[in-house]
């Protein structure tokens, strides 16, 4: 980091006085300065004091997939903004058309892209489409949307209504009607003592459908790998049965790829690891690696055609707009982001380094009794921490936070489940950028090893 940030005390005070930070209790700033990140390169970021950190969570929320300081993305955005920066999504632009084509090439079976600017908003668009389809084609009856315990789909009111994390919902109700929970599929904390747990967890979804009435259920919204709910990978047999159930009852399958999309699991999209054929796919975070705001709802031609009906009927089309879905910076950045992933072989690197990460985490599990379970896919992994392996009693959230703090003190940023479930905020989260190499991986694992040792002695 160069010297131009040596004295930014005025900026620190401006931040303290005027910025309302996300997911943050500001009372702590009565005793310390806020952290202001001023520069990033590769996987390293620097704060206002000049201290560097190795970022093992890709921007704190699984976003900066290709790393910091990518001049080619910045240049692509700059060049596009000079040509035309914005027009409402009722018209087209060159980067929007080009990226939609490239995106659907990566998602066979899906053919249409609706642009927005956040994952929450993309999920809301899908929910609205389901409701409108219910009115247009099912007499208003197939309007309910199923979601899974422990899954998360965003911060807006509709998305929170479909949130499987009770602490995130607390103090924000009442929520819109028609959002129905189905059981989670975390085998480590399985609800049924059976051999074919994956199929049983999927059958539990069918139980809910039959209870609610199949003719009232329009869609099922699931993450391919549950993210903030504890990095939960699906058990064997789960996804095959889920898809079978959806087809049996004519239920649209909505896969929320906001976290997993754009390479995080070693495939372009997480669902592609499991042979799923979804009706909706929503994506956001890694689409442009945080270089511009963009989210996408990708859907099939079959879904699209349900709105392509009578042109003289003013209520027949999808009557929705995302103002900043018309910004050209997002698709321009996304095109270059995709090129980087392809040209630098980052999907292959994700698979290769993901193996290294999982092997290292299993080594830590053998060494530290505090690690109850290790799970993940690609460069998206979690460690569930326990006070007792035999009983699986979750480690207290304060101790989990201490481990995160110990890593921070050594200059490595990791994540954790935070204020999501009562008693179960006990999973550490690792999601380094897709560019991670052996040296960075060694540092991440060694720092975590030291933190687990220090926290238990």
UniProtKB/TrEMBL annotation:
Its cofactor is pyridoxal 5'-phosphate. It holds the Pfam family Aminotran_3. It comes from the Bacteria. InterPro entries: Aminotrans_3, Aminotrans_3_PPA_site, PyrdxlP-dep_Trfase, PyrdxlP-dep_Trfase_major, PyrdxlP-dep_Trfase_small. One of its GO terms (molecular function) is transaminase activity. Keywords: Aminotransferase, Pyridoxal phosphate, Pyruvate, Transferase. Belongs to the class-III pyridoxal-phosphate-dependent aminotransferase family. This is Taurine-pyruvate aminotransferase. It comes from Rhodobacter maris.
